[in-house]
Records
---
Amino acid sequence: MSYPISNSAANGLVDSFGRKHTNLRLSVTDRCNIRCFYCMPAENVVFRPRAELLTFEEIVRFVRVAAQLGINKLRLTGGEPLVRNDLHLLVRQLVGVPGIDDVALTTNGILLADQAKDLHAAGLHRLNISLDSLTEETFQRISRRPGLQKVLDGIFAAKHTGFQKIRLNAIAIRGLTENEIVPLAEFAREHDLELRFIEFMPLDADGNWTDEEVLTGQQIRQTLEAEFCSLEPIERSDASQPAVDFRFADGVGRIGFINPVSQPFCDDCNRIRLTAEGQIRNCLFSTTEWDAREVMRRGGNDSKLKLLLHDCVAAKKQAHGIGEADFEKPARAMYQIGG
Ligand code: SAM
Ligand code: SF4
């Protein structure tokens, strides 16, 4: 499929709604060491054969080309990125790509205690660690595997190693995690960590999502204000960041809300994605993909990759459309895309 190229390479990756894309989410694997119900099937997951995954060399090449089109921020994700062997070696190469000035990682934290030092030494300075619950029972209801203590060990290891920017991401599920809101906020305030609550999106592998399970940012905010103190809005320094951030009026800590369902932020989206096997996507909810691996493995030159990136961005829809009559759930679940 080919779409008109909306701009020259010099203008970067601008879509037909004028959104400039500078942010790339890179999935490095579809494998994971737990099985969160909002992301993966419980059992019998069929992972991509390893030969289908992009090699580090292919990822770095893709990033070098994307950076020439204005991509300057990367986030490594998955699946669980820390199950990919020697991830720190990839990080080291990515931080050295001309034009890339920010490399971050999203992890479930289970393997972080073992890898924090190497990742930090490789040049990674920003970490998002997913933590939905502080009780092992609820942790296991969500992730269908044990592991809370390992995640906590990972968080403290990262702090100890010297990571300055550690953020906790908590998915909020109505009927399941209401009792986690206050303890998570207390934990974040006590340990000087930023906490962001994320609304549950229809990207679960089992296809069980309903809007009734979405615990909105607004509802969580009310709970927090009733328990602690008022939350004061923090002005956005970057319009494209998905979170709305607040500081606690008592001066202890800050909190953010990512509300893709109740308050979509598509108008300011600057993100594209590369799946672990090299498909470019212009949205989490995209139903079309552009095959960068095919181009690279068939000997295509960098101009071909640039054309592919332009085609992908030019075809981006205005909004994800969750909740609208013609919304189409993508065939892939979150772990197969990279959140
Ligand atoms: N395994 C890593 C982790 O869990 O942090 C990285 C990949 S995970 C897919 C990235 C983020 O997506 C996590 O914070 C996870 O909680 C979030 N996520 C997964 N499924 C989601 C869904 N259906 N709705 C909203 N967020 C989701
Ligand atoms: Fe694994 Fe992350 Fe998906 Fe949970 S959200 S199953 S940790 S990839």
---
Amino acid sequence: MPSPTAELVARDLAVVWHPCTQMHDHQTLPMLPIASAQGVWLHGHDGKAYLDAVSSWWTCLLGHRDPRIVAALKDQLDTLDHVMLAGFTHEPAIDLAEELVRIAPRAVGDARELRRVFYADNGSSAVEVALKLSFHYWRNIGRGERTRFIALTGGYHGETLGALSVTDVPLYRQTYAPLLLEPIFAPSPDAYACAPGETAIDCAQRALAAMRGLLERHAHEVCAVIVEPLVQCAGGMRMHHPSYLSGLRALCDDFDVHLIADEIAVGFGRTGSLFACEQGAIVPDFLCLSKGLTGGTLPLSAVLTHEQVYAAFYAEYSAGKAFLHSHSYTGNPLACRAALATLTVLREEPILERNRALAAHLAKRIAPLAAHPHIGDVRQTGMIAALELVANKSTRAPFPGSERRGLRVYRHGLERGVVLRPLGNVIYFMPPYCITPEEIDLMVEVAVEGIELALR
Ligand code: PMP
């Protein structure tokens, strides 16, 4: 008799095509059927528990099956499952939009208030919405010559064609390049790329100077600049100084182009503030949110913008200015209720304060790794920490990607019951906020063991 796990794996591999996976790898790499989850723990059909150190692709904010979200979902299911949001509305969509508007980033001296919420149903779709809204805004006000976007090197915004166009991670982009829009790529303020003797602030200033140069040449044809505030996540958890954000906001204003902040991965307390934009004291023209929005239970995304944008679309139907973008599950009531429950927890509990203590504990645990001969950088922003594996510490030369050393760390993690899913040579931690100091210790210990094995 095959074990229940083996049977599930065989059935899976016969029919399911997995995301972000070379399916051939599963000839040797274990596929893990998960039966249930609670808090930071995933429970396999094999009876083993796995610490979800990456919050299931950064979605699971508070921990799996948070009882408050579960209760809200059950209650919602008893009343309204779904209704299309065109021509109809419902309390969860209204309540959530009001709450998002209430907590949206504000800045002293900036009249922009993010008071309009457009829903979509995943991160990439939110980015598509923001790109289209920006382009369409300029067209509606008679500036149809603005057709391009500025994106940062090393940035990631999703994998639908528009979002992939403004993504600069070759692994995902290269193959599809012939199908994509051609954005203008500006140098990232990534502090890991600092020249010797440069500080993170210097690095940010250098990137801003380059951005100014590009805007001087291209602003007339540019709709918006898109940025992942503070941490370029999928590009390798590359971090930058908050002064880049304030400088970028000022440049976008000087050259009259929109600023799109993609906080899909970093929103809702991940970086130490509720939104990363707050650390640069900026209000973007478009704020993209998803992932942690529903606490990792259901797909949902939202794009917030201000009244000036909304007003450019508001006209008699015959003017042809409406934003006709639509997804079937826009503003799904269940997803909105899950998001409301998540935001209630963030409002009522001292989550940011608790995260500060947890982040300090994590910092203490990873600090000694800076001396490791094959760790070229130890970096952290709030509840995101990353270790950069290098072949040569003094030159920071990376290990060739083909050696797949990160994959060895992943395998070891699974053996020891910790889900680490490195991004190439970058081993990172992005755990749910309910993790305990002891679980942080375990997560780091297993990562260090995995790194030692990967170096052999
Ligand atoms: N933007 C950022 C910053 C992201 O990290 C991601 C997902 N990793 C996306 C967009 C795309 O979101 P989704 O996977 O839900 O399409």
---
Amino acid sequence: MYSYNPNSLKAEEFINHQEILDTLSYAEANKDNLPLIDSIIEKAKQCRGLTHREASVLLACENEEKIQELFDLAENLKKKFYGNRIVIFAPLYLSNYCVNGCTYCPYHLKNKHIARKKLTQQEVADEVIALQDMGHKRLAIEAGEDPVHNPIEYILECIDTIYSIKHKNGAIRRVNVNIAATTVENYRKLKDAGIGTYILFQETYHKESYEALHPTGPKHDYCYHTEAMDRAMEGGIDDVGLGVLFGLEMYRYEFAGLLMHAEHLEAVHGVGPHTISVPRIKHADDIDPSAFDNGIDDEIFAKLCALIRVAVPYTGMIISTRESQSVREKVIRLGVSQISGGSRTSVGGYTEEERPTDTEQFDVSDQRTLDEVVKWLMEMDYIPSFCTACYREGRTGDRFMSLCKSGQIQNCCHPNALMTLKEYLMDYAAPETKQIGEALIQAELHNIPKEKVREICREHLEKIEQGIRDFRF
Ligand code: SAM
């Protein structure tokens, strides 16, 4: 029998089943306790974050007025910490060879009708050129787990290739990595290769379900998977990204587990997760999402996003093209800070004229081009940002968090967003997007608080106009 201990390095102690069950009972017992709910909302308003118990009470609460208060608060916190910037990235699928048996993923070993593909270094280069030609600067690389086809050396070689390609004015300046749980030694190699965030979705925090959903392969080991972020941090990676695949288990259980994981990282390493992703199961080859009973509707999904925003105000939130334009529109307002755009989830998909589906990991709901996504964001008064400055300036882990907490983000991220948007407009945008963007930049320059920074930003924008690239604060 394990007891709850956020400081422990044992999965079953920091994600403690009994503590989650007790949390859910506490939340159920207090879901109409309005004085308690008011005090929790009050705490969140002061940007102090919420514990998994407090946030779970708000998740259980069905009082419409209080839920509206929560949504308003999420919107305010989002504006306060992230302004109107939305960071843009694209996934790059390297290989769909996989030895695991994940029952929700089309790459599972027993799927014999999906085409298996692994990019050669030349193909990686071609994909990167295609992504650069769209305007991308930040990628998340994705691969199945297969020690023979996709060993760490292959992943490292791909990262080197990606950073080495400088096509026209293009460059990939930040590579985030979403590969299976691995060893401290391998995490150190990834760190040395210059990765940004290491992302690993927990899929589900419920151990018994986890083992059933991952019946075979190395991923079956719940503890090894759950303790991966501690190994990543031990290997020197400061920025880690958590996530749950919503639909596999009961969302209230997952939500409590997710926040406990964040609390654990904060307690042990002094810094919480850099990002949290909120994927929902999608249809894919050999995968029918309705076979999983715990699907959540758009309302609950929005509530979860709002709650993540108020519970961990300094953690970025990511939404992918698994979600439709309308869902993305709703949750961007409630706290999402990063989105993917123009994504293809197949191996080698970016170099194909038509969207290929034969090796796709899941169906993409938002199929618009990057330029359409950029234009759409600007029409809603957001600034699409291609910024990658923080980690290149060494602002990772707690140093990024201090920037966030100091309120100086507006003097740093805001001009960086404007300058990287300017690069996009100069090099890749359609004429109408460019026109909207230029006007937006002029208007948004006034929102840089420090006069000196505003002046430097103005000068850099002129230099970008003259063809010079890659300025940053
Ligand atoms: N293979 C790596 C691992 O084991 O963690 C990660 C890469 S995988 C390509 C990225 C994520 O896609 C998985 O962690 C999973 O949450 C998600 N995924 C898998 N099947 C999915 C589906 N049918 N719909 C939506 N997301 C899915």
